[in-house]
Amino acid sequence: MCIMSEYLLDPDFGFERIKRLMVAGAQWCEILVEDVASWRLLCDDHKTNVQRASRLGVSVYAVASGKSFHTCCDGTSAESIDRITDAVCASLRREGGRGGSSDVSPHEVSGGAVQDVIEPLGDVELSRRLDVVKEADSAAWESHPKIKQVSVVYADRVRRAEILTSEGRIVHDNRSMVELAVRAFLRVNGEILSAAHMFGALSGFEVLGQDGKRPTEVAREAVRKAALLIDAKPSPEGQMPVVFAPGSPGVLFHEACGHSFEADFIQKGSSFAGKMGKQVASELITLVDNGQVWGMSGSFAFDDEGNASQRTVLIENGILTNHMYDMRTALIDGVRSTGNGRCESYEHPPIPRMTNTYVENGSDDPDAILAGTKSGIYIKTIARGGNVDVLSGNFVVGVGEGYVIENGRLGYALKNATISGNGPDVLMDIDAVGSDLEIYAAGRCGKGQNVPVGAGLPTLRVRKMVVGGGR
Question: Taking 70 as the threshold, does the pLDDT of residue 139 lie above it?
Fold first, then answer.
């Protein structure tokens, strides 16, 4: 076995395998060792299912000639690591890659902190996790007489990773995450109305005592959203102004626009391909991907290729300034990685992924944006699901919590409303950006692999979007 007291993998052992990969033809390569312990509690109908898991494994990943080669093994035995190293070396030789230098000088690399853990999850008894679920469940049932069903999901995860790269970097990246989600179902006049509320954070167990993140508060917010639908009315339909509240609606821009800035999609010809240095959004818009937001679920000190996370400006005052790169796509374009190489686990290869993606503050008064909108709709949350074509930017998504705007004021709540459009067109059509930015834990983003992300925006207005689905 190669497990050490200080290291998950003996660096000398690992770098000998790195050198073999480079000799075999790798332009760049890494060995990732990942040790994960997790809990997941699901409560439905007052019954709680408990799952506990732990995984220790290794991945070998190499890039050559624009292609990637990945394989993995459970555990850290020398035999298993040699087997997967040999498999990648064989693939590299078949590819005929020219390879890079095998002269590697190992060195430790440290990164900036993105979280603080006061109460380590490893010290928390199961009974306290069960109490969280019970508190949320009870609070939801007590919050409204029409409650029919409540679903509570609590999850936490401690990940310890060690990454060795062909540049000689030795990187340690440790993350502690807590997530809590509540969905409430009401039955009113034979109709089932449901809504959810959740949060995710890089933190220890102490986060569950913070304002807005207490189990009772999460549960009551889910019930509040569901209860709004009792008196909700169909949305007006057609093209109209749409005002987005700060925070949660940022997930729309993550889906409809953000993926199109990931370098693998750019290289496949996404809607923003070939537009570097050109105007792609309203001059009011500066769009950022930032893996260093303190305590946010999409943050990390290092990505899964050992590159430090960073703040990457994608659009500045409407001008496209950068893409999000992992090592493979960066080598293709001859640029540096932006620290966006992420993987779900050692069983998956890293690919370009967003971290926390948000529109930066503008200078408009948020209240004045709403007051200056004679008619339209106001969106506080985007519903899960919908349809987004990453390459074209076309989308149709549901409105979660939304309201009609009448003479600059919020009117009745909306039921079953949708918005549709084209991501690039929406960016160009923004005519007001507020100064009240909120960044929200947007859950997990799927792109063949699930990773936690954040999204956000200040209050902003799009001149016109197609609103429908209300009737």
Answer: yes
Q: Helix (H, G, I), strand (E, B), or coil: what is residue 396?
A: strand
Return the domain boundaries, the chain. 11-39+47-109, 121-164+171-232, 234-468
- CATH code given to domain 11-39+47-109: 3.30.160
Q: Is 350 helix (H, G, I), strand (E, B) or coil?
A: coil
Distances (CA, A) of 427 to 237, 320, 348, 416: 21, 11, 33, 24
Q: Which residues of 311-347 are buried (b: 16+ CB within 10 A; e: fewer)?
A: ebbbbbebbbebbbbbbbbbbbeeeebbbbbbbbbbb
H-helix or E-strand spanning residue 377 = strand 375-379
Read off the pLDDT of residues 32-70 as tens digits, 9 standing for 90 and up: 999 999 999 999 989 999 999 999 999 999 999 999 999
Nearest to 229 by CA among 196, 206, 259: 196
Tokens, residue 143: 């919050």
Task: Report the alpha-carbon distance of residue 422 to residue 460 in Å, rounded.
Answer: 17
Mean predicted confidence (pLDDT) in 314-323: 97
Q: Angle, to 10 degrees, between the axis of helix 78-95 and the axis of helix 11-24? A: 20
Domain 121-164+171-232 is classified in which CATH homologous superfamily? PmbA/TldD superfamily (3.30.2290.10)
DSSP 134-164: HHHHHHHHHS-TTEEEEEEEEEEEEEEEEEE
DSSP string of 224-263? HHHHHTTS-EEPP-EEEEEEEPSSTTHHHHHHHTGGGGBH
CB 466 within 8 A of CB 239: yes
Residue 19 amino acid letter: K
Q: With H, G, I as helix, E, B as strand and everything else as coil, classify residue 17.
A: helix
CA distance 75 to 94: 27
Question: Pick from 378, 371, 360: which is nearest to 419 by CA?
Answer: 378
Asked if residues 357 and 253 have their Cβ atoms less than 8 Å apart, the reply is: yes
DSSP 8-state code for residue 131: H
Comparing CA positions, the residue from 113, 184, 106 lying closest to residue 150 is: 184
What pLDDT shows up at residue 45?
87
